[in-house]
Amino acid sequence: MSEDMSAYPLRLEGDDVPMVRFMNVTKSYGALVVLDSLDLDVAAGEMVSVIGPSGSGKTTVLRMLMTLETINGGVIYVDGQPLTHMEKNGVLVPASEKHLRKMRADIGMCFQHFNLFPHMTAVENCMEAPVHVLGLSKKEARERSLELLQMVGLEDKVDQHPSRLSGGQQQRVAIARALAMRPKVMLFDEVTSALDPEVIGEVTNVIRELVDKHNLTMLMVTHQMGFAKEISDRVCFFFGGKIEEQGSPDELFGNPQKERTQQFLSAVMEAG
Amino acid sequence: MSYFEYLAEFGPRFVDGTIITALQTVLAAVLAIFIAFVAGLMRMSPNPLIRGIATVYIEIFRGTSLLVQLYWIFFVLPLFGITLEKFTAGFVAVGMNLGAYGAELVRGGILSVPRGQWEAALALNMSPTKRMIRIIFPQALLNMLPPWGNLLIELLKGTALVSLISVSDLMFEAKQINSTTFLSIQAFGTALVIYYVMARFAITPFMRWLERFMSRKLGRA
Ligand SMILES: Nc1ncnc2c1ncn2[C@@H]1O[C@H](COP(=O)(O)OP(=O)(O)OP(=O)(O)O)[C@@H](O)[C@H]1O
Ligand SMILES: [Mg+2]
């Protein structure tokens, strides 16, 4: 797709540069347009929840930001720098692998199905990238990892392989593993959806602690409306590849303006 | 002549033949594994030329007879100035043939690792090479071990063909002994049992052990 890139700044400057900016971002699979001219800013330190019906493009938003998907139009900026593009002779061109590797360092992601490395213990999962990507010594990486595993309440499971851990424990390891890279932005894609109800709290408690004590920027896709309401600075309701409505949790849950938002919320409230 | 007398007389030659067969098997296996990994990875390359070369190799070696390949390597290559000793020609032919089958096992093993593993490794900003070597390969290896066990038994059986270019392996010795004694049941019966024992009591237990060892290492025990 040839798009006039001169409409996009080479970098974002000024006083209130957002940590993440989606600018006119389009994503399609063949003829299916999954995200249509998306504009979304996430401020530094902000926790934004993404809700919406299945297939509305929530996961795709996170995957594009994690560079797991390429985009078909627009630009994503992270910390003021273009992520999906890079500057070449004064214009933005699609990012090279090298540029992506530099930019990805700022972003971490947790997945619905954990995706822990099964051939490594909990602590080895956490140490892997610090050692083999950041080049930390094993000792440093281990210390950093143990600290994080302790923070997520797994100090007694550090030497267990994922197959020996419950879903809730695995997801907490996955959070520690992502944090070990010290990202500025954390992405959570339905991290509690694959969990038994009684262990969901273990994981939400960890996220709650991150919100309270760490200055991370977070983007969280969730089906848990109660948790989203409690913890978010802002909630975005996605519908058909667009942000149908967004606002503070009180506004969006308490007084939704759009009919689709009202329908969606009353449907999920009824379901439980 | 009783079978004991038969063995007393020809046993040492069966042993010699068995040793050659074992050597052919090990060398061919090493070559096959090497080729399988190289060709299997090339098959997955984003570069169409690299992929094409591997595909052609695999097609040729899987689509034609091992015996014909053996004769090509031993009798035809010298016409192009590449002369291999018969022992070398033997295991090279077997290794190249089974390597082509192994390449598909390698590819299948890598594809069997869930996508989420690649994605998690990418999300941790690991380089493509590190993702492959540190995350995907160890898991792929475990997944592909059982079919490799079968392939190695095929490979052992395939080495019998090297007797046709006069490598003095087990089959060659059996034929030689048969042609002087005409005791066919003893000659080929003994060979049959030895091949079976090598497959069932050497290769199979070794592969089982390797699977257990790897599973433990990968924390799946
Ligand atoms: N690799 C792909 N190829 C084709 N279509 C895809 C692909 N990935 C996603 N889609 C489509 O894109 C749309 C948005 O998918 P996405 O996974 O972002 O939805 P979601 O909002 O996360 O849904 P859910 O709540 O079910 O997780 C869906 O229609 C989906 O079928
Ligand atoms: Mg989703």
Automatic annotation (TrEMBL), chain A:
Bilayer topology annotation: Peripheral membrane protein
PROSITE patterns in UniProt: ABC_TRANSPORTER_1, ABC_TRANSPORTER_2
ABC transporter domain sequence ranges: 20-265
Transmembrane segments: none
Cellular localization per UniProt: Cell membrane
Stored SUPFAM superfamilies: P-loop containing nucleoside triphosphate hydrolases
Recorded GO MF terms: ABC-type amino acid transporter activity; ATP binding; ATP hydrolysis activity
Gene Ontology cellular component terms for the protein in this record: plasma membrane
Keywords: Amino-acid transport, ATP-binding, Cell membrane, Membrane, Nucleotide-binding, Transport
Family annotation (Gene3D superfamilies): P-loop containing nucleotide triphosphate hydrolases
SMART domains: AAA (SM00382)
Family: Belongs to the ABC transporter superfamily.
Protein name per the record: Ectoine/hydroxyectoine ABC transporter ATP-binding protein EhuA
Lineage: Bacteria, Pseudomonadati, Pseudomonadota, Alphaproteobacteria, Hyphomicrobiales
Automatic annotation (TrEMBL), chain B:
Keyword list, A-Z: Amino-acid transport, Cell membrane, Membrane, Transmembrane, Transmembrane helix, Transport
Gene: ehuC
GO molecular function: transmembrane transporter activity
Superkingdom in the source lineage: Bacteria
Protein location: Cell inner membrane; Cell membrane
Membrane topology reported for the UniProt record: Multi-pass membrane protein
Family: Belongs to the binding-protein-dependent transport system permease family. HisMQ subfamily.
Classification via NCBIfam families: ectoine_ehuC (TIGR03004), HEQRo_perm_3TM (TIGR01726)
GO biological process assignments: amino acid transport
Protein's name according to its UniProt entry: Ectoine/hydroxyectoine ABC transporter permease subunit EhuC
ABC transmembrane type-1 domain span: 18-203
Entry's transmembrane regions: 20-42, 63-81, 87-106, 140-165, 185-210
Source organism of this protein record: Rhodobium orientis
